[in-house]
Each structure stands twice: as structure tokens, then as C-alpha cells.
Amino acid sequence: MQEAKKLHAHIIINGFQQQETYYLRKLITFLTISNPSSLNYARLIFDQIQHKSAFIYNTMIRAYSSSCNPQNSFVLYDQMHRNGRPSVDKYTFPFLLKACSVLGDIRKGEESHCQVVKNGFGSNVFVQNSLIHFYGSNAKISSARLVFDEMLERDVATWTTLVSCYSNHGSIETASKLFKEMPEKTVVSFSAMITGCVRKGRFNEALEFFRELQIRGLEPNDSAVMGVISASANLGSLDTGKWIHSYIRNKKGNRFDSYMNTALIDMYFKCGSIKDAIHVFQGVKVKLVGEWTAVISGMAMHGFGERSVELFENMVELGVKPNAITFVGLLSGCTHAGLVKEGLTYFKRMKSEFGIEPTIEHFGCVVDFLSRAGLIAQAVTFMNNMPLKANAAIWGAVLNACRVHKDVEVGEVAARWLLREEPWNAAVYMSLLSLYTEADRWDDVVMVKREMKEIGSRKSPGCSLVEVNGVVYEFVAGDKSYPPALQVSLQIDESIKEVKEDYGNLWD
Q1: 119: which of 51, 80, 376, 389 is 20 to 30 A away, CA to CA?
Q2: What keywords is this UniProt entry annotated with (predicted)?
């Protein structure tokens, strides 16, 4: 910035402040991309130029579209449009549409679309791609598809943008179909499918797309890598998680950013490898709130609530400010460790000391640890005084605690609330059955079973995930359609069954 200001001084001394020159263009371009605070300085220079070109206008519109004040892009566009000079060009509208996407302003985006057509840029690929992105980012999938279908010429960015629209906001099946039709696939299109599958909970499919990316010899970008880490975490696929960790370590050394470190710590905890999670955490030289939050939440997940509390205090002592997610992990740790007093203290400190407003997740944690400790009346009082309405997760925590502590009265209230909201939820019926059975209220047991039969509710079959050679297989109770790779285990089961039938006495 110091050198830029010196250059600006030379421009003023030489009398070029009010006319656009090559040096002035370069200076404004530098100022708009260097840092957010220099944008105002760029605007002061811009305003002093008497005869501005479309390039200078576009540079400023682009800068504002990525800033905290994207609405200023429209102010400059209106100025261009009102003066009639300079004329807009094919670069103006993509930046303007980006501002619409950031603001989520559908009306302005549609108005910009009209201006695109009016100014003769309706068949420009660059502009059309921006229109697809605008409509897709605002979940207007049908409009995005209409622009795509009307295009006479499409490039790889066109296909990738539409695939991203469907994978993020529409149908993953349609996205997959479009992906297969793409004449050319890039790492960006693979990344769109991977992140889309993860967002939709299709974790196995995300790993399949990643394997295909590798087979094609493409190097995954950070987005694809983060998607695979997330998929591995949700599937509990430790082998795949370790492989991707090794892969990115070979590519980047140990120079991971905070997001990558946080994702890896979270993945190892969810895969059950506490040792690997701690190893990643300890290897981070400068630990930010993301890494601390991941390890606090991970220890809580595995029942080490006291350790979560210790880590939290260490974090605060080192001057790292916790965020709302940190407190969800901390309060969850208090829940699993039965630390009621500590949990209430941290809940109060959250707002008084750190200025964090509690969300429904934090209130839910408090209700959960009070209920688990058998303080059900206190939990209900806390719920009634909450500024937010209790959701299904909170009522579910109360119901589970009532089943354990045999509080039929409150349990009935919780179950009936849940059944009003989720009448199809068989798990609620099963909890209610257990509650009545423990209380020897057999007439109520019969009544609940009758209700389940009338609405066709039945308990969902249990399922298990098994990882074999890096591939995760799902087993559902009663399902015989297992993958060929696991047929051997079925044959062994059949053999054992035959032995039992033929040599039952010896077996016993």
C-alpha cells in the first residue's frame, strides 16, 4: 500500500489524476484486490476520473460484488446506465449477477437478466454461465435449467455450474445424470458431485466419485478432499480417512490450514480412533478455535467429559476465544460425564463472560444433562422458561430420561408431544411401550400397540456398517442381498446352521 500511494502521488504530480491512464488502471486494479480497507481508497480515485471506461467501471463493480457492500455494484451500474457512457459490455453483467447471488436478491437478478437480453448479451457463454450460477445459488433450478437448455454453445464451466446447482439445491440423481453426459469432466465437476453427495447424506456415492477422479488421474482440490474427509467421518471409514490424510500430507507436507486440521480431527474421532485424532491435534503448531472445538467435541463424543472441560480451560488460558459450537461440544461433554453443576456454570459463563447468545442446541444440552441426572422436574421448569420453543430433540431427551428413571407422567407428556409432531416415528412408540411395561400398565401397552397397528407404524430394522478393503458395506437386519464380496460369510453361517442341525447334541 505504501508503494501504491507513492505511485498515486506521482500520478497526481504529473497531472494524470482526472484522466484514465494505463498506470491509473493498474493502481485501481491493485487497490480493489489487495485488501478490503483499500477499496474505499480506490473509490476516491475512481470518483475523480472524469471520463471513465467500461474497464474501470467493471473493475469497481467486480470489487464491490465480493465486498461486504455488494449493493454498491448496482449504484455504479445505474450510473453507467443513466449516463449512457461508457456502454456496458460482456464483463459487466457477470459481476453484477455475482452481487445478486451474494445478496440473494432474486428481483434484481431477474432485472439484470432482462438487461442482459436488452443489451444483446443473451447468447454470450460467459454471461449465460453467470445466469445459471445466479439462479442455481438461489435454488431457482428450473430457471437455471431453462438458460442451459436455450444455450447454443456450452463450455465445461456451463456443465459444471449446472451440475453444482442440482447437487447443492436440487436432485442428486439429476446431477449425476448430467455429470455422466458431460463431454469433459474436470476436478471442479468431480468436486461438485462429491460435496453434493455429502450434503445429501450419500456418503458412499461421494467416495465412489472420488475413486473415479483418481482413476482419471486428476488431482483433487481442497473442496473434494474436505468432502471425502466428511464422507469418511460419517461412514466411520477409518481406512479411507487414513488414506486421504496420507495423500494430502504427501501433497502439502504438514502445512494444513485450520479447516483441514479440524476436519481430520473430527473424522478420526467419528471413526473411533482417539489416538489419531489427538496426534493430529498435538501436531498443530498454532491451534485456532476450530481445532480446539473439534477435540473438545470429540472427547465428549467418546464419554471423556472431564477431559473436555480440561481442554476448554486450557484453550481459554491460551487466549483462544470459544464460539457457539465450542460450547455445544463442552455442554455435551458435561452431559455424558454427568457434570450437572459444571454444565450449568458453563451455560451461564457462555453469555456473561464470552457474549455468546445460547441457541436451541445449547438449551437442549442443559435439558439433556438435567434429565439424565434424574432432575426431570428441574429440566421441565428450565424448558418452560426457555426463550425458544422446545424442539423434537429436546422432548426426545426428556422421554429417554423418563424411561430410564421411570417417570411415567412426564414421559407421557413428552411422548404425546412427539407423536403430534412426528406421528410416523416408531421409536417414540417403542419408548412409550417400554415406559408402560416398566410401570406394569398393560392396558396402556395394548392401547399403544393398537395405535401403531392402525397407522402402520413399525420399528425400523437395525443396520450396521462394515469396512472391507476400504469399501463400506451396509447390513440391514433381515436383508439377504449382501454384496458378492461378503457372500463367504453367509456361506459360513449356512455351514454352521447345517452342523447344528446334524450334530446338535455334540454342538451343545
Answers
A1: 51
A2: Repeat
φ/ψ of 253, rounded to 5, equals 70, -135
Q: Which residue type is seen at 241?
A: G
DSSP string, 407-458: -HHHHHHHHHHHHHH-TT-HHHHHHHHHHHHHTT-HHHHHHHHHHHHHHT--
- List C-alpha distances in Å: 394 to 151, 363, 428: 50, 8, 13
Q: What is the distance between the terminal CA atoms of the chain, rounded to a whole angstrom?
A: 85
pLDDT digits 0-9 by tens, 464-486: 555 555 555 555 555 555 555 45
Beta bridge partners of 463: 476
Please name every residue paired with 51 in a beta bridge, in sequence order, or none if there are none.
19
Report the mean per-residue pLDDT for the chain: 86
Rounded to whole angstroms, the Cα distance separating 365 from 353 reads 19
Q: Judge contact between 190 and 220, C-beta under 8 A.
A: yes
Q: Answer for the pair 63, 100: CB distance below 8 angstroms, yes or no.
A: no
pLDDT band at 439 (very low <50, low <70, confident <90, very high): confident
Q: What is the pLDDT of residue 478?
A: 53
Collapse the DSSP code of 472 into the 3-class scheme (helix H, G, I; strand E, B; otherwise coil) and give the result. strand
**Helices (DSSP H) in 182-221: which residue ranges?**
187-199, 203-215
- The three grid cell numbers given for residue 320, joined into one nine-digit string: 483462544
Partners of 118 in beta bridges: none
Cα angle vertex 464, ends 401, 419, to 5°?
Answer: 40
254 phi and psi angles, rounded to 5 deg: -110, 20
Whether 302 shows a pLDDT value over 70: the answer reads: yes
Q: Position of cell 438487461?
A: 115
Helix H or strand E segment including 64: helix 54-65
Tell me the C-alpha distance between 144 and 166, whole Å.
10
Quick one: cell of 390? 422446545
Distance from C-alpha of 296 to C-alpha of 346, rounded to nearest angstrom = 14
**pTM score:** 0.74
324 secondary structure, DSSP code:
H
